């Protein structure tokens, strides 16, 4: 089998997009009925890559019956994802810093461990994640091993990435729906790996995991909206 790109639930870029205030916006044709019903819509595009490998972009879009700040309180807390996101063992924040000129924006180094059904490979990786509260926007990028070595030298313990991970990038953002009473979440992940894998594994990652992740976020936020189990830290 040729080298392939496996689409995973938390990682990379989008289909055709535009920019507004330096925030990437996904531009796809949505089914308005599915959107109103809260049904997940996904889009996939094959991209050109250097060498023999392949890359695909995938995005997921779904309406959540909760306000933006309620959904934000769920998606910003990556350390809790292991409790309810299928396919993820854990996320662990290693370091977090804020920006003096942007008090509502912060950067985190986050270690993750995926339950990918491929034996004998390391399943850990570390991401550089930006949380932009004013724009309800999150963006992430795999930290290269060179940077990991620098961080370890500076005293921060960061594990090496899995050797099969060539690239991980991605972003997610929220937009109001129905006069702000509901929210649309846009989620755009891709992970590119460098080993041949069975088709069943690719289907598992590109289909089952994306659906499971989006449904988990939706259920978590809607439950919080109804039961108020997550404090309203932010207000619209």
- Uncertain segments are 1-21
Helix share, percent:
10-25%
- Let me know the average pLDDT: 79
Describe the oligomeric state of these chains in a short phrase: single chain
CATH class: Alpha Beta
SSE inventory with pairings:
Blueprint: E1 5-6, E2 17-20, E3 23-26, H1 32-37, E4 41-47, E5 55-64, H2 68-75, E6 88-99, E7 102-114, E8 124-132, E9 137-142, H3 145-153, E10 165-177, E11 182-193, H4 199-227
Antiparallel strand pairs: 1-11, 2-3, 4-5, 5-11, 6-7, 7-8, 8-9, 9-10, 10-11
Helix pairs in contact: 2-4
Condensed summary:
The protein has 236 residues and is of the alpha+beta class.
Describe the structure.
The termini are far apart. The chain has one domain: Alpha-D-Glucose-1,6-Bisphosphate, Chain A, domain 4, CATH 3.30.530. Residues about 1-20 have low confidence and may be disordered. It contains four helices and eleven strands, in the order E-E-E-H-E-E-H-E-E-E-E-H-E-E-H. The protein has about 240 residues and is an alpha+beta fold. Strands 1, 4, 5, 6, 7, 8, 9, 10 and 11 form a nine-stranded antiparallel β-sheet that branches. A two-stranded antiparallel sheet has the order 2-3.
Pick out its properties.
two-stranded antiparallel ribbon; alpha+beta; globular; 22% helix; 236 residues; Alpha-D-Glucose-1,6-Bisphosphate, Chain A, domain 4; nine-stranded antiparallel beta sheet
């Amino acid at each position: 089998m040729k080298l392939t790109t496996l689409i995973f639930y938390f990682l990379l870029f989008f289909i055709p997009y535009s920019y507004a205030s330096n925030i990437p916006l996904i531009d796809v044709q949505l089914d308005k009925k599915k959107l109103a019903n809260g049904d997940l819509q996904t889009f996939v595009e094959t991209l050109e890559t250097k060498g023999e490998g392949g890359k695909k972009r995938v995005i997921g879009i779904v309406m959540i019956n909760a306000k933006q700040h309620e959904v934000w309180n769920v998606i910003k807390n990556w350390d809790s994802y292991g409790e309810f996101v299928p396919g993820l063992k854990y996320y662990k924040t290693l370091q977090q810093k804020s920006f003096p000129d942007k008090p509502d924006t912060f950067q985190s180094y986050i270690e993750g461990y995926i339950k990918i059904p491929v034996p004998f490979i390391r399943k850990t990786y570390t991401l550089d994640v930006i949380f932009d509260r004013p724009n309800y926007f999150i963006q992430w990028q795999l930290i290269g091993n060179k940077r990991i070595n620098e961080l370890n030298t500076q005293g921060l313990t960061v594990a090496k990435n899995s050797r099969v991970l060539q690239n991980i990038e991605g972003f997610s953002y929220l937009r109001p729906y129905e006069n702000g009473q509901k929210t649309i979440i846009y989620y755009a992940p891709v992970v590119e790996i460098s080993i041949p894998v069975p088709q069943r594994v690719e289907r598992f990652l590109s289909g089952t995991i994306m659906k499971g992740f989006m449904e988990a976020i939706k259920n978590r936020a809607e439950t919080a909206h109804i039961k108020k189990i997550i404090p309203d830290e932010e207000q619209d």
